[in-house]
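Take a look at the protein record below and tell me what you see:
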Amino acid sequence: MHVSAHALRGEINIQWHFINGTVSLAFTAVPLFFMMSGYLLLTSDGTNDIPSLLKRRLPKLILPLIFWSLTAIITRLYYTDALSAKNIFDAAIEAFNSPAMVHLWYVYTLFALYLIAPVLYNGLKNLSRGGHALVLVIILLVSIKPALQAVLPQSLDRFLEFKLITQMGFLGNHLCTFILGFYLGKLKKKIPNSLLIVAILAIWGLITFGTYRLSTTEYNQAFQNQSAGWEIFLAAAIFLLFKQVANKKSKILSRIPVIALSLPIYMMHNVLLYGMERNDIIAHSFTDTVLNSILIYAICFVVTKTLATIKPLCYLTTGIPFKKASKTCNWIFTFKKPSI
């Protein structure tokens, strides 16, 4: 999504259409992350363990956030010829108010969700059937409003500006997505896989075509809103499909170190992209987008895997204890001899 930003704001051609289609699907990443987190946290008894929350869960977000925020600040100041101790300090203070680089907003939101997860866990656990119905109605209202605004003419927007609904979009609407993951994960009734696949293709097609129709003069992301609307519906369908067809622990997947390193890779990727673009390594086509994305992924993977191998830096940069990293994702894990 970040690599393609420049190309999507350029001329609409066949390359643009390929990028648009790919990005329309990729925008489900954030809601899927929140849905998975919501399902796992709001169904786990460990969420009610406040000491564990304060000692384990929050530090593994805060310390990497501090490290990568400082890295982002230094990188940005370096490329703008403004690198100085004072500017680093001022930018670090500003990071308390807004992320040092745009992609880090996700960690701020996840931190807030971690803090309120125990309240949500106990609240949902003791909620009546009517209460659950009310929560689902609120989630639907928050999500359907931007979906309708994307489809209907702008002249009708004033009829959809309900302040009461807007006020229920806590944490930029992501709280609703977080709780929706709980309900989707707990859903016992199986929906036919064929129906889910049709829904995925139909919504994906609508988002792709709708984005094209709205972007004839200037790139418009109304259909690609990752906090509410059509992307939430698409993510929900994908979540349910994979829950039904791949809801088993995989020995193969558990051996892939990128899964454990996903948080530091996420924190690093846009910092690296910023540096690449400052050196005129910019994606102008679909091929460029794919190659640059692979390059960024590969570099981030090697760097974070290496940082996870350096004991003093492991937890600070990845949020993973060194002992655990040596069993799951760092170079020690990769090259250790298999036990007999």
